[in-house]
Amino acid sequence: MKERKAMYMNGFVGILLIILAGGVGAFFLLQQQVLLGAVLIVIALLLATGITVIQPNQAQVILFFGQYLGTIRASGLFLTVPLAIRRTVSLRVRNFNSKKLKVNDVEGNPIEIAAVIVFKVVDSAKAIFDVDRYEQFVEIQSETAIRHVATKYPYDTFDNVEITLRGNADEVSAELSAQLQERLEVAGVNVIEARLTHLAYSTEIASAMLQRQQATAILSARQKIVEGAVSMAQMAVEQLDQNSTIELDDERKVQMVNNLMVAIISDRGTQPVLNTGTLY
Asked: What is the pTM of this model?
């Protein structure tokens, strides 16, 4: 099924024709020409059933005894096929906020996820005839696509080498939009945007995952501190050797590097120790 243009004419002109037909029919009835007058009045009444009003950004699908005649997309007052059934379809941009869905990510961790879908109808014939209640179809397919995308990626990764739901929002949204467009094509619906509105670990593992994230952050910070401490100790030894102001043997260098490492890496403030003697 594909949308096509229906037959219609300006509604004000149609009303004038209806009034004219009714007036002429009444005149013939008064002139005792009952048959002709009755025919004109019946024609006027039939034409009156074809008067319709269409609001901006709406369309009307015209059905005549079960046959699809076309769609009127223009707004205003129109005269279309008499005795036809007219079904209104909104062409406006709409939002659908999904419920919070509980799914497992690719690593099997239970998470809560929700999204907002921005869409509009671009083919009224498909929306009416190819699916049953296209609004409900959009809701169900949106939740299905959200579940599918959530199971393809991990919630988070600690290696920084993968696409994650938390760290790659744009890529996940693009994947969700593509999945939705493919699913909703049959309903004549165009997906304008799809964005995640809620993403969190499920309550039963949220505290454990928080501890894991904290441990990973502490480990990463420690690695940076150690790297900096080693670099600073090496720099100090090299500068002392270049200036030749103090002659240090290997044992003294080891002790100085050890003191610098302790002072930089320690969580608490270190107390300086003044050595008034000798190492030997």
From this structure: 0.68
